[in-house]
Amino acid sequence: MRWRSEQNAAPLREGQGEPTNLAAVGRFYITTPIYYANDVPHVGSAYCTVNADAIARFHRLMGDEVFSLTGTDEHGQKLADAATKNGVSPQAWVDQTSTAFKAAWSALDVANDDFIRTTEPRHRTTVQKFLGEIYDRGFIYKAPYSGLYCVSCEDYYTEDALIDGKCPVHMKPAVSMSEDNYFFKLSAFEDQLLEWYEANPTAIQPATKRNEALSFIKGGLKDISITRTSLSWGVPVPWDSDHVFYVWYDALINYLTAIGYGTDPERFEQWWPSVHHLIGKEIIRFHCVWWPAMCMAAGIAPPANIFVHGWLLVGGKKLSKSMADDDSAPVKLTDIAPEQLTAEFGVDPIRYHLLREVPLGGDGDFSIEGIITRYNADLANNLGNLVARVATVVGSKCGGIGPRPMPDSPIADLAATVVADTVAAWTRFQPNAGLEATWRLIGAANAALEQAEPWKKDPGAAVDAVLGDALEVLRLVCILASPAMPSVTAEIWRRLGLSGSPADGPFDEVTTWGHYPGGVPVEKGDPLFPRKKA
Ligand code: MSP
Predict the structure, then answer these.
(1) 3-class secondary structure, 485
(2) Alpha-carbon distance 159 to 144, whole Å?
(3) Pocket of ligand 1 (CB under 6 A)
(4) pLDDT score at 332
(5) 84 CA distance to ligand 1 middle (Å)
(6) Residue ranges of the domains in the chain?
(7) How far is CA 95 from CA 100, 122, 368, in A?
């Protein structure tokens, strides 16, 4: 069986380079993993959510029809344990923590189209339909099972995968479990998965992670246990009421619930399989092996694209709630809610940092010192300085009315390159490179001002020319940086005397040089990014 990953994909934009299913535009469905609702969100969860949100916003900006999904994973042993520890029912506990996730995303200005909770009736219906389909097709059977289980991962480990009997992700002891389970015939999909990845070389990005998934498949696939009798906090198995589905098996299906699998075929057709799953590196096996095989078993196409990111590290270790009791970490960033960071630095600066500091794909350090350094360099000294400088000099030399840019400005060519580079980077899931490209334009405008020194000159054509160009650069920067910093760019847009918003488009038209109208009032306002003390 083969499926086309480019299904539903519209033609490529110019400047996007090689056609990959990553660069496909037109309709764009993006998901984050659904976060375990055993605890409140932390900065590591915010990293993935903000990146997915900004990428979704970039696609909306380009005129694509976008559906962005996030949510909470609310079943399983870990959830049940957390509720018991807190003396409440699992439902009461997940109601509380999922509210905390929604609040955190709203504080970070995340504009998701849907928020799915796996305890919702709509999800139960989809899970039962989808798994019922796999059962009917003969890919599920019953057998006894015993193994070593890490409750934090909600996953079984083989003895040799453990380090001193502890799970390698959480460094917690794995416990021995034994039950009569239903199994999914994952082993039947080895060849089909390899064929699928062979035919779709960009389905897993980056290539290092694709290789990881491929070597896992080539190492041989064992059937997986997909139900539990040891707990009741899960989606009931429709054909056997003694069992609930294993949490991972129910969780992955959220991606289908939200787009109407089994309930709204037309809607489902619209969004599947042209999906982009943004996930962290420790859940590759679930998404790149189990999930496509489950889709094949149910007779639907596997997801078109899985983009794998690394971890935010604190003191060299994964920033994680499960490690909050690890006192060897130099800063207890695990205890810092994303909202505390936005209160200290502002929403858009934290969004910018999460997008700019650690490129999607690798691991990277996350620290308060790092936030301050980047904030002062990129936001206060670069963007903030350009806005303040231009507004001040327009005030003193042009009576507060912004001049028009030069049609043949020396910056115009650079601007065209920057727009193309920015688009290419964002469509390849590289917000950091996209922002870096955009900031080249800010650097060029600041350098042109330094060279021309309009503040030392008498009003006239030379002053107007350099200021008009700088205003046009700011207009373009507002558009290109709006997915990262929606509020700040809207504020700069307003101060430039522009109407509407930076996201109004049409993108291809408004990102060409020369649309700053001139003759409009420019407002100075308060500093956008007051410098922070290191
Ligand atoms: N519930 C599962 C996902 C099911 S998706 C069908 C799960 N939840 S999680 O809350 O543990 O992790 C969710 C995501 O957050 C993962 O992709 C994980 O990589 C990401 N992160 C958690 N800590 C992180 C960092 N320190 N850095 C970057 N991402 C991090 O797994």
Answers:
(1) coil
(2) 18
(3) 33-36, 44-45, 47-48, 73, 251-252, 254, 279-280, 282-283, 311-312, 318-320
(4) 58
(5) 23
(6) 27-310, 367-521
(7) 9, 16, 31
| 35 CA → ligand 1 middle, Å | 6
| pLDDT over threshold 60, residue 10 | no
Candidate from 34, 36, 47, 48 with most ligand 1 atoms within 8 A of CB, to mutate: 48
Is 58 in contact with 422 (CB distance < 8 Å)? no
Peptide bond into 292 cis (omega under 30): no
- How many whole angstroms separate alpha carbon 413 and alpha carbon 267? 42
Q: What pLDDT, in 10s, does the model give residues 279-302?
A: 999 999 999 999 999 999 999 999
- The pLDDT tens digits for 203-262 are 999 999 999 999 999 999 999 999 988 789 999 999 999 999 999 999 999 999 999 999
Residue nearest to atom 8 of ligand 1 (CA): 35
Helices (H) and strands (E) in the chain, counts: 20, 18
CA angle 61, 66, 71 (to 5 degrees): 120
What's at 257, amino acid-wise? T
What ligand 1 atom has the least distance to the C-alpha of 291? Answer: 6
Atom of ligand 1 nearest to the CA of 313: 26
CA of 322 to the centre of ligand 1 (A): 11
Instruction: Give the residue from 521, 419, 430 showing the smallest Cα distance to 477.
Output: 419
For residue 71, report the phi and psi dihedrals to the nearest 5 degrees.
Answer: 170, -165
- Atom of ligand 1 minimally distant from the CA of 286: 6
Question: Of 134, 305, 293, which Cα lies nearest the Cα of 221?
Answer: 293
CATH superfamily for 27-310 is HUPs (3.40.50.620)
Chain segment 118-173, per-residue pLDDT in tens? 999 999 999 999 999 999 999 999 998 888 988 888 888 888 889 998 998 888 89
* CATH number at 367-521: 1.10.730.10
